[in-house]
Amino acid sequence: MLASIVNRHLIPVLACCIILLGGCQGKDEAVAIQSSVTTSSVTTSSVTTASVVIYRLDGERDRPKPLAGSPENFHGWRILRSVSISDPDRVDDVMERLREQIAQGTGRSRCFIPRHGIRHMTEDGSVIDYVICYQCSAYSSYRDGESAGGGAIGGSRRWLDRLLARTSR
Description:
Blueprint: H1 2-22, E1 31-37, E2 42-58, E3 73-74, E4 77-85, H2 88-104, E5 116-122, E6 127-133, E7 138-143, E8 146-152, H3 158-166
Antiparallel strand pairs: 1-2, 2-4, 2-5, 3-4, 5-6, 6-7, 7-8
């Protein structure tokens, strides 16, 4: 119950504060403020943006899953398409849009049929993954392969679909 209260009320407030504080950074600083949720607490860290990979996932539960560690697997979900982005401005745009959508999240249902994923690789060597289901407005996050919680997400999947349509494997 406490986790539900934190996810519903505290996370959006903290995410908005982080976004507002991020606007106070100097123009020459390539700093993205990354928020991650753990099951026991909320942590934030400042990391320099390096690159992102956006995934289109097959979220159907009854389809066979690829083997763990295979290149077609993103946290247990089959990868249908992917696009890598390394331009710092575009990476910052992707991460800002994701933070905005997480801040907009107000509730979620239980279906979790993720069709999108984002892997954020930072210059400090961290890998932060987001597995996203816009159908039920939920996401799960992972830091360096370990579960880092998740929560509600708002907005639309269309921006990710547009990025995936431009260039894909």
